Structures are given as structure tokens and as C-alpha cells.
Amino acid sequence: MTRTAWFHCFAGTAGDMTMGALVHAGADQLAVMELLGRLPVDGFAVTFEAVQRCGIAATHAVVVTDAHGHEGPRDPVPEHSADHPANDHDGHEHDAHGHDGHGHDAHPTQEHTAHRPYREIRDLLDRTDLPPRVVDRAQRVFRALAEAEARRHRMHPDAVEFH
Predict the structure, then answer these.
(1) CA distances from 42 to 36, 68, 126 (A)
(2) Residues near 155 by Cβ (< 8 Å), separated by ≥ 6?
(3) What are the b/e assignments for 3-12, b being 16+ CB within 10 Å?
(4) CA atoms within 13 A on the CB side of 63
(5) 3-state SS class at 153
(6) Are 157 and 147 spatial neighbours (Cβ–Cβ below 8 Å)?
């Protein structure tokens, strides 16, 4: 049986939000955590918790990073969530990099999460011990995201950074 998930990401999505939604839809939490553990990345942990958002039951993927991941010092900050949308109190939307659409930092006092360039993600996936179809699918998804971001910011896809 083939299952298809449709995401209408008109305002974007975050990895933790997507992972929580997939687990809520039936993905096996332990299998997801086991596969994530195969990534050659240090300094993170993932847990899942049942939550209510605006009266709707959901699963929240809680991703915690330490201050010293494999790239050196990092200061984790909360990701945007249903309780803290990606816009400020004046209704200005922010892009995936925390900017307000005018080139200014949306929250100048908030420290940024660690960024990882697409070229590094591509290489990281090539070094994993994941099933080939999982690596292929992840490579295709990240390539599509990097190409879309590159067009938006008029840059080469290898220079696109994810966080």
C-alpha cells in the first residue's frame, strides 16, 4: 500500500513541525529516532510529546541541541511554533532565516540557530548509514528546497543555509 502526504506549506514549515506531523499521522517514533541516530551528527536529541494547539491534538517533535555540536559552539533558540508564529506583533512575516522581508533581523536581540549549508547536508547524507531509498528521497527534498531558496535569494544552491 502506498500512502501520500500532502503539505500545504503556504507560509513554510520547520523540520520539527513536519516530523511531529508525520509521527502524529502514524510514523513509528522509535523507528524515526533510530534512523536519526544513524546521522553523522553529534549533540542533539529528539523526543515526541502529545500537545493541544488551539484545541487540536497534535504531536510535537522536541529537538534539543547542546551548545557544542559538531560544528563548534552553538546557542539554540526556540523555533517558531503554533504558539509563536513566524511574524512579529505588528503582523510582519519573517522568512526562514529570521529576516522581516526588508533585509533586517526580525528579532535583533535573539541569537540565531546553527546554520548548515546545503553542500554540507548533501555530503552528510552521502556518509550516512541510512537505507538507499531514504538517502535518495532526502537528497531530492533538500535539493528542491535549496534550489527554491537559491532562486528567491539569487544565489547558488550550495550557498543556501538551513537551520
Answers:
(1) 11, 9, 16
(2) 149
(3) eeeeeeeeee
(4) 22
(5) helix
(6) yes
Count CA within 13 A, CB hemisphere, residue 68: 0
Cell match 526580525: residue?
Answer: 106
- In whole angstroms, what is the distance from residue 9 CA to residue 124 CA? 26
- pLDDT 10s digits, 47-105: 999 999 899 999 999 998 886 444 433 333 334 334 333 333 333 333 444 444 444 44
Can you tell me the distance from the alpha carbon of 73 to that of 71, in angstroms, rounded to the nearest whole number?
7
pLDDT digits (tens, 9 = 90+) for 98-146: 444 444 444 333 344 568 899 999 999 999 999 999 999 999 999 999 9
Q: Which amino acid is at 52?
A: Q
Question: Other C-beta atoms within 10 Å of 21: how many?
Answer: 17
For residue 13, the model assigns a pLDDT of 80
